[in-house]
Every structure is written in structure tokens, then in C-alpha cells.
Amino acid sequence: QVQFVESGGGLVQPGQSLKLNCVVSGDSIRGYEMVWYRQTPGNLRESVARISTGGDRTYGDFVKNRFHISRDNDENTVSLQMVGVEVQDTAVYYCNRSPFAGPWGQGTQVTVSS
């Protein structure tokens, strides 16, 4: 089965930067759109950023040009560079592919606080 291992989260102050990484095993990401999601307690998981097989990128409206998603098909990894983080970005971040492949990884916690 496909497995997703997210890392790179932590506690940062508003305005700082953070880079999240996702290592995928069990299948190649080459033929799939890859997606970063996030979830806060009591809320549904929401899409943060997507990157197509051709490299086209789509972001949630709340991103406002602050994040950058990238992929490395040879390394089977997906990254999310976060710049100018805000308190509202506090969440557990997950990666997955489209169509979805279960199970979800453990996610990586991002906490933005002064």
C-alpha cells in the first residue's frame, strides 16, 4: 500500500518560514497529482496546495502567495515551502495524492504562535 510520511512541522512565530516534506513509498508519485492538506480540531481537512503531473500549481484562497508546492518524482517526495506564516496556519498538515490513496499519514504539526 502507499504510505505518506510528513515531516518538517514545528513551532514558529508569525511571519517566519517553514518547509514541510512528504516522502511517499509503495508507489511512484509520477502519474498523480499531489496534494497538501491541513486540518484543525473540529474541522474538516482542507486542501492547501496541489501540483499536477505537469507541474501546474493550485492553492487555497487563504494561501495568498505565501506557500510554494514542489515535487521530485525521482525522489518520490513532495514539499511545501511556507513563508510568512500566520496564526491561522496552525494545523496538522498531510500530503496525499489525487485520487486519494489511504491510509492518511500521521501528518506534521505546524503551530504558529508568538
Task: Explain this structure.
By secondary structure, this protein is an all-beta fold. It has strands at residues 3-7, 10-12, 18-25, 33-39, 46-51, 57-59, 67-72, 77-82, 91-98, 108-112. The radius of gyration is 13 Å and the shape is globular. It starts with a strand and ends with a strand.
Feature tags:
114 residues, mainly beta, six-stranded mixed sheet, four-stranded antiparallel sheet, 10 strands, 50% strand, globular
Terminal residue distance: 40 Å
N-to-C SSE series?
A: EEEEEEEEEE
Strand content: over 45%
Alpha-beta content class: mainly beta
Backbone shape: globular
Query: Roughly what is the average pLDDT, rounded to an integer?
Result: 96
**Number of DSSP E strands:** 10
Over the alpha carbons, how many angstroms does the gyration radius reach?
A: 13 Å
Question: In DSSP terms, counting alpha (H) and pi (I) runs of 4 or more, how many helices?
Answer: 0
Major sheet: arrangement of strands: 2-10-9-4-5-6
Low-confidence stretches: none
Give the helix proportion (percent range): under 10%
What's the story with the biggest beta sheet? 6 strands, mixed
Brief digest:
The protein is mostly beta strands. It is built from no helices and ten strands.
Give the SSE layout.
Blueprint: E1 3-7, E2 10-12, E3 18-25, E4 33-39, E5 46-51, E6 57-59, E7 67-72, E8 77-82, E9 91-98, E10 108-112
Parallel strand pairs: 2-10
Antiparallel strand pairs: 1-3, 3-8, 4-5, 4-9, 5-6, 7-8, 9-10
